[in-house]
Structures are given as C-alpha cells and as structure tokens.
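Attaching the record inline, Q. Sequence:
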Amino acid sequence: MISVAQALETVLNATQDFGVEEIPFLKSVGKILKEEISADRDFPPFNRVSMDGIAIDFPQFKEGRRSFQIEGIQAAGSPQITLQNSENCIEVMTGAVLPKNTNTVIRYEDISIENGFAILHIDAVNDGQNIHVKGKDGKQGTVLIQKNTKISAAEIGVLATVGKSFVKVAKQPKVMIISTGDELVAVDEIPLAHQIRRSNVFTLVSLLERLNITAETAHITDDKPLLKSKIENYLQEYDVLLFSGAVSKGKFDFLPEVFEELQVEKRFHKVAQRPGKPFWFGSTASLSKNEQHGYQHEKKQTIVFGFPGNPISTFVNCLVYFYPWYFKSVGVEHQKETAILGEDVSFKPSLTYFLQVRLVYKFGHLVAFPISGNGSGDLASLVKSDAFIQLPSDQSDFKKGENYSIIRYR
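Structure, as predicted:
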C-alpha cells in the first residue's frame, strides 16, 4: 500500500499528449487552447468613440467656447470624416471612428442642440475624454490569449475580433467508463430486493463532462471470461478506461487478475487513504526513464483507473487522481485550494482522510464544515456537501482553525 502522494506522483508520471486538432472557433468553448492568439492589428484598430455625443477640438473649449456649430455626423461603421473648422463640432456615435481634427468627446447628456448648434451645460471637460485610444488594449502582434488557456465566452469574443475562425485545441482522450457487477441494473429498471441501480458510471460521466470530455459507458457482469474479452477490445480502442468496482478482495473482484492476464502493467494497487483504499492503477505500455524530461512514453498507452465500487470512493478518486492526470496531460496547471477547518475532527487510522465538507465564506475566509455520512456507500451524503478536505495521515487530531487542502466539486 502506497501513500496518496506516491500514488498521485505515479499517476502524473503516466500522463500523455493526445495531440492537437483545429476546429471552428465557436465549437471550442471548454477546450484547451494550443496556440497563442495575437492581435492581427492594433486593438482597437482606430481611435474609437466610446459615448454618443459630439467631438470637438479641446483647445477651443479651453479658450472658453461653449457653443459649437454642428458640421456633420460620424456614424459607427462609416469612413472617417474631417472637422473642417476647429470652432465647430461633429456628432459622433458609440463605436465610430473619431473624426480627424477632433480629440475630445462630450456626451449628449451634457449638451443641448438648438438650431444646428451644440450648447454645453457643463464646465468640466477633460482633453481626450470618452475616446478608446487606438492600440490601448494591445498593439498589433501583442499576445491576447496565452497557450493552454481554457476557452470560455470571453476568449470566443477575442477570437472573433482577431479573425480566428478556426483555432488549435488539445484533442480530448477517448474514454470508456465501465461498471461491473451482477447486482447492478439500469436506471429505468425496477431493482429486485438484492439489486441496485447503476449510479457510479453516471457520476463519472458527469464529472468528465465538467472537463468537456464525452465518455462512453458499458456494463459487464461478474463473468471473468466475458470481462477479459470485452476489456481486451476496449484496451485497443480507447485512450483511458475508468472502472468502478471489482478491484477489492471479493471472490468476484476479477479485474486485477484480468488486467494481469491482458498484460496491463500494474503501477499500484491500494492507497493509504479513506475512502477509496483499493484503487488500482496501470497502463498497457512501459515507461522509460529520461533524466532530463522525467518519464517518457515508449509508445501510445491505454491508461487504466480501477476505482473501488463504493460511490464515495469512486467520486473522490476521480477528483483526486483523474482530474490532475487530465490537466497535466493537456498542459493546464491544476489549481489547488485550501480552507479553514470549521470544527475539530478526530481520525485515528494512519490514512489520508478525504472528509466531506460544506463550504461557507466567513469574514472573507473559506471555512469547511464536516458533513457526517454513513461511510463510502452513502451516495446521498454528496448532495449535502461541496468538497472533500484532505486531512494528512501523520496526525489524528485536527483542530478548528487549521488550514488544509480541499478538492471542490461544486
């Protein structure tokens, strides 16, 4: 049995690059950007009017002029026009090019228009006000979005602005989620007294959807030849297999034997943690050691995560191990978060304890309050909590006010 730190290091040493694909930019939300996005011209590309009103030559105002004859109108999307007489003004619309020979915009709210003249009702006007200066947001060639950024609606707007109709993003791994066990029936079935409905597989589907991964699902009964036959095919077809169940010590927990017979190399089996101790992890290819770059893959792998079948065990292991593995594989830095323990906790076993907590902000601090459940099979308790707080294995008493890592799922 290895520690959580050793298990996570092993998982992170088995990351892999799934390549890059170029897709329409509107299809890229949630994807990981794999190129730098630079301004194709100054951003904004011209001195842009930022308020509806009039454009004037500021020195005229400074000399005391408060009434300006209107020469014309500069509409948004129209070619730039020129103020012919510096004592006059031009009406301007938001988004329009600032007319030549003008340098200040005064809002309609601060003027009245009578007989073709704009009359000011204020005495405070600043030189250059209400103008979005050319290149202020970024000069041509400036990097606007860094590589490895997760694309959101904000990035979509920038991509459109710089004309990136197609964008390079990280390919997602091809994932199969597999549940095992004769006791499981479909969601729409009425279970017999000795049966339960499949739930873990759909929890995993939803957790992966948060990463923008669309996973396929399968269920295999506790039949070793059938397990071996189906898994052999899945290993050829998928980048990642996520299992729920059949990795413990039960008489029908065949997966460790099947993995060995299919030459899936075991990296570890059992982690010093609660919940989720029987976690099995391996891959179909060996890793070679490279002193400069760390572990490098000799060939394409299929990565295998064998999570224990209890619902909380499956849930926490996906968050603690699969999520960081995925983030590192696609080049995204995994963000860590901490919270203050809201009450004393005692936990005697020398195991890392992933305790379910409810998160509350108090006086600007994130505080984690433990949620009591009925063990790793209590799926309903997840509804009452927001995260797991990670309590280290080298102590047994954890005091209110102490700070620990959390793994948030809300």
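The CA atoms of residues 7 and 163 lie 44 Å apart. The chain has seven helices and 30 strands.

More tomorrow.
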